[in-house]
Each structure stands twice: as C-alpha cells, then as structure tokens.
Design brief:
Blueprint (H helix, E strand, L loop, with lengths): L3 H8 L5 H12 L1 H4 L4 H8 L3 H10 L5 H22 L9 H22 L2 H13 L12
Amino acid sequence: MSDALVRLKEHLNTLNPAERAAAEYILSNPSESSRISIHVLASNAYVSPSAVVRLCHTVGFNGFKEFRRSLLTELAEEETEQRIAATQIEKNDSIEEIITKITKSNIQSLYETERLMNPKVLQKCVNLIRDSDKVIFLSLIHI
C-alpha cells in the first residue's frame, strides 16, 4: 500500500511534538524526503533519528525503509496522475479522444480509491454493520 503521505496527514494531530515536526517536514518536502537518509531527514526536521522511526511505526509502517518505499511509490503514482490530469478534454477533441480521456480518468479514480482503502478498517465497519440491530443512513445535500 503506497499511502505514506495520506497516513501522515491522517495522524498529524495525534503525533507527539518530535513526530509531528518530522511529519511536517516530510509533508512539506516529500520528494526530498524520499531520497535522503534517516539521519539527514532527522537533522533537517530538528529531531532525532529515533523520532523518525517512531513516526513510521505510529503511522503503520515497520520502519523507515518501508515508509520510504511507500513514499517513493506514492510520488510516482502522483506523477502519473498529474500526467493523466494534463490530458483534460479539449474543445476540439474527437469522440475517440474524449472516450479515451474519460476512461483513463475513471481508471485513475479507481486506483486512487483502492490505494486509500484500508482492509482492516473496512472489515471493522462491515462487522459493526453486521452486528448492529439497526442501521440508519443519512444524507446531506448542499445546494
């Protein structure tokens, strides 16, 4: 699963000060953070390397290497997404070009959804709904 930045954003408000400083540095410098060593990252964020390791564990990774791999994958996927987004439908596009662009956009949306899904959380939700006596669905409409 390649969602290092997503996980950092989700946990940002619950991190201790050192972990938060490291997370904020990574979020502000994701590309650089994916290429530097844990010691350089810690130095740049003004924290210890152990704080970076704790951050990685807190957001669900086994360590910095796994986190960095996930970050690299996520950045590569974002680059691909940006290339696809750059192929917006233009006024002079043919029907075939429009179909291709819409199809690529839909495929990318599905990949993004898959990347954000957490099977453990989804299973917990399924179990809660299954074990509930009553389920109420609500909807808000903004106009």
